[in-house]
Amino acid sequence: RLINSPKLYSTFLLWLLSELFEQLPEVGDPDKPKLVFFFDEAHLLFDDTPSALLQKIEQVVRLIRSKGVGVFFVTQNPRDLPESVLAQLGNRFQHALRAYTPAERKGVRAAADSFRPNPAFDTEEVITTLGVGEALVSTLDTKGAPSVVQHTVVRPPASRLGPAEDAERKKVINESPIAGKYEGIVDRQSAYEILEAKEAKAEKEAERLAKEEEKAAKELAKKKARAKKTRSSRSRRMSPLQKAGNQAARSAAREFTRYILRGILGSMKRR
């Protein structure tokens, strides 16, 4: 979405470079920049860009070199960039340009004229005959002036797509300045894992207590049910004869008690 909104893209670029310019310290003119930005399809940055914004971008691009920041604009044709921005670019890498129309030939001529001429070849002619991996290159010399353009072959990457072999991996490890320090695999327990274990333990303990309480409640209910059942079964097991015998025994006990009391009271009265 950002690249499809040129004005927003340009504003973002200006903000980013301005923040870096304000925050980074002055480093002068280092051999290599500390930070490099490559803006692909750079012509999108300058489509319908207001002149005030364009001037500000030009100013920041020119001044940010002293902060150790490099900015590269990548585009198919140098005509896609404003002249004021092109004038601030110290390093140029020009790949092949094809010219089939008068306007395209004019663009090739303009691109060739932007380089410092090399007596060894015709820059305008070479631009149209460059092959794959070839480029015209011009950089700044020690005095800050553009160097003579050179016809170069771009060195392909030395890397290889695919997994590294065991011997290659072992060689890189042995040549590392920290070789021998981190060979042992240590799986330390993180704070997240400790807290997670505590939470799991607390949940298990809560589940255990809940199960014990539930079990105790069931045992108590069973005991109450057994006691109630025992009392009711005892009352149900007593036969009518037993009930009559119990009643007769209670009546006899009452009569015997009254008889004893009368005897005691009568003897007391006679005295």
UniProtKB/TrEMBL annotation:
UniProt xrefs under InterPro entries: HerA_C, P-loop_NTPase, T4SS_component
Domain (Helicase HerA-like C-terminal): residue spans on this chain: 1-269
Annotated Gene3D superfamilies: P-loop containing nucleotide triphosphate hydrolases
One Pfam family of this chain: HerA_C
Compositional bias annotation for Basic residues: 223-237
UniProt cross-references to SUPFAM superfamilies, sorted A to Z: P-loop containing nucleoside triphosphate hydrolases
Native source organism of the sequence: Hyphomonas adhaerens
GO molecular function annotation: ATP binding
Stretches for region Disordered: 212-252
Compositionally biased tracts (Basic and acidic residues): 212-222
Protein name, per record: ATP-binding protein
Keyword vocabulary terms for this entry: ATP-binding, Nucleotide-binding
